[in-house]
Amino acid sequence: MNDSGxxxxxxxxxxxxxxxxxxxxxxxxxLARNITDHKFPSSSALDERNEIIQIVQDCIESxxxxxxxxxxxxxxxxxxxxxxxxxxxxxxDDFVSKLSGRAILLSPRLSHKDSAIxxxxxxxxxxxxxxxxxxxxxxxxxxxxGKIEKLLESRLSFSFDKEWGYLTSNPANLGxxxxxxxxxxxxxxxxxxxxxxFIKNITKIxxxxxxxxxxxxxxxxxxxxxxxSKTLGKSEEEIVEEMQxxxxxxxxxxxxxxxxxxxKDLLGAKDNxxxxxxxxxxxxxxSFEEALELLSILRLGLDLGxxxxxxxxxxxxxxxxxxxxxxxxxxxxxxxxxxxxIDLKRAGLIRERVLEE
Length: 357
Hints:
By secondary structure, the chain is an alpha+beta fold. It contains 10 helices and 10 strands.
């Protein structure tokens, strides 16, 4: 990774129009905390986990100055409701793998362009505060998460050691227990022969890298989730600054690979973009994974200025809209629904949003 370059928003890329938010699609900042004198959720009985949930719920209801948060026990959410929250990237697959003794507080939002706040209760740790924002807005998300944490800490006693910092179930999170992750769209890097070197460099600087759905998930649609992974010995401010610098380098790296692609194989790039356009225009059914792959290449074509017969679109927003759970909810589909029914709706929705004039 080239550490010497800088990225200036709005700078000339030579082709099309490109800004950092078309590469860094979203940001999520998380703070993990545990309540003093209680076992970690993984080693506590159901009664104790429910007690912790009640303690936190009562605390939040008694504090003024917190954002509006709606309380939900996972067991009382429908499968589609849980999947919708998952598809909004406010939780990971692992959180909903067990339902009893877990709960979540969610802030309402009007659109996917608003920040999303969630407080996860009794996952790996008692409390996990998460703030998600569109684009690369790490500092904004960190400030919001920090304010919520300080308000909770004014009423709750968190497990803390002078030498080790905040105590967590995972030793890797000791210290600040802060994680910053970004969802990135890196089609030019992904199709380059140097993709493996890029991944190696990311892990070498202390970050983890995964697919869209989080840890151990496969990369689909050239979407990579890159997360900070070392907290011990670093302040929260240092972690935030490091991830901001890493994001700038990722944007610069992707821009450079896009320029190389245009210089070395413009015809091949145009062919891939036009093939994707054709499939999106004429396919009757599209799975979520296939749609991501095609939309990724179409978005690349728009960024490079090599296709014009489409509407401009926000890739991250569209990813949310075309997920299975959102299609079921938005089209008010009731009763049993087949994969083909959902895939048919998805193909039509994409044409309506992106292709049809």
